[in-house]
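Example record

The entry below shows one chain as it appears in the dataset: sequence first, then structure tokens.
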Amino acid sequence: MAYYVGPVANLINELHKLPGVGPKSAQRLAFFILQRPVEEARQLAEAILAAREKISYCSVCCNLTDRDPCSICGDEQRTSTVLCVVEQPRDVVAFEKTRGFRGKYHVLQGVISPMDGIGPEKLRIRELVERINQGEVREVILGTNLNTEGDVTAMYIARLLKPLGIRVTRLAHGLPVGGDLEYADELTLEKSLEGRREM
């Protein structure tokens, strides 16, 4: 970074720390910010600080929130008997956009990944079991991603929850809406057959 004056080099270094931002992208973002009016740069900086200072985790579901409990946990119109377990806060947003789920959530804050040194103890699984032991939950939907880590995490949680006598379900695997069969891989087709339902 010796090519840039101190503040510019520092800005590029900080932007490069963001996930998915390589050195070229960091440089491009830095110069974009420098070309904007000072007030826009100030608004960006203030938005970052405000989000970092005012956002915390909901004491009930472990989702990001600016109040405790979060708006979903505090919504009495939603059922407390169905709980959807997801990996990250952005997964809650994905479900909410469908407007099809009226239960509540539990955010694990990650998945079991031995390669990354993440075991069950590093996730919010203990909090999940505590919620279920309160006796209101009747079904847990395991909404983890449909990949190796998501499957391992879902299986671990299912084994943990089954003895508690509640229904444990998993998101369906299969073909995307509008997808052509000829382009589907064998595993997707197999999962689609397994997850078929009566019409």
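Notes for this example: Residues 128 and 162 are 13 Å apart (CA to CA). The beta strands are 56-57, 64-65, 82-86, 104-107, 139-142, 167-170.
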